[in-house]
Each structure stands twice: as structure tokens, then as C-alpha cells.
Amino acid sequence: MPNRNLPNPTARVGLAADHGGFELKQELIRRLLDAGLVVADFGNLLPDPGDDYPDYVIPLAHAVAAGKVDRGVAVCGSGVGATIAVNKVPGVRGCLVTDPFSARQGVEDDAMNVLCLGGRTVGPELAWELVKIFLAAEVGDAERHLRRQGKVASLERQGVDPSSP
Asked: Crossing angle, helix 22-34 and helix 124-136, to 10 degrees?
């Protein structure tokens, strides 16, 4: 039975993890499927201690940016590497989140579209709560937030001049 705290059951959610986040990713996939959501698994499909998070989270980020999935969840050991990697893809706004307020506010105010988690730092219950909040949140339309989002998008289009202050 779909969970009312989650978005429309036809929402497409992509997940990706390396070995540091593999078990948490698998648990989240199970819960999302049980909630009736459409899930795309970008890997890794087997636990491999020699794998590298960019190999999985970058394809996820491209899928989010292209609209092939509505939102993404990227997991590595700490969540830091996954966050850095997904934000290299234009159109992706990923953030490492460890609290419910940021899971909601990141979407509502900052148009976050990839939730990054640490498989070794966040337990499955908190991770599931964060995912539910992230997926249920909607991007707001307050002028001040749209203005800020536009400035960030402009940086993506233009690139950042390293010599500017």
C-alpha cells in the first residue's frame, strides 16, 4: 500500500551506491518498492570493496539531469564523495543530508534533486525517514528562493571564474 508521506506512486526514483553504501541502498530500494514507487538501480548491483562511487553516482546524476528519473539518492560511505561527484553534473543539486529539516528545506528552497547519504554514518531508520521527507517535498515558488536558484543556475551555465573574488 503506497505511503501517504511519499509522492505519487508513479514517481521515478534512482538510487546508486558503492560498497560503502550498498547495504543501505538495498534497504531503501526494498522500502521504496514496498511503498509502490518506481525504482531505478544504478548500481553497484553486488557488494564490491574495490568499486568507486563515481562509477554509480554519476550515471544517476545524468539520469536526474535528463529527467529519466524524478529524484535520486546517492550513497557512499560518508556521503561526502557522492555529494561532490553528483554536483559536477549540470542540473543536479545534490546535498549530504543528516536531518529531517534539511531533507525538506533542501527541496523546497534550493530545488535539491539528489539526496546524498552516508551508508556508514546514517542508520536505515533515519535514512528512510530522510528519503520519505525528500521525496514528499515540493520545490517552492517564493521569489527569494527562485532568485537564488537562478544565480546558481547561472554559475552552471557560465562556469566560475577562478580569478574572481
From this structure: 50
Render each residue's pLDDT in the chain as its tens digit; 165 residues.
344 466 666 789 999 999 999 999 999 999 999 999 999 999 999 999 999 999 999 999 999 999 999 999 999 999 999 999 999 999 999 999 999 999 999 999 999 999 999 999 999 999 999 999 999 999 877 686 677 767 777 777 776 555 555
**pTM given for the model:** 0.88
What are the structural domains, with CATH classification, of the chain? 12-158 (3.40.1400.10)
| Of 74, 76, 97, 114, catalytic | 76
Angstrom distance (rounded) from CA 1 to CA 140: 28
Catalytic status, residue 95: no
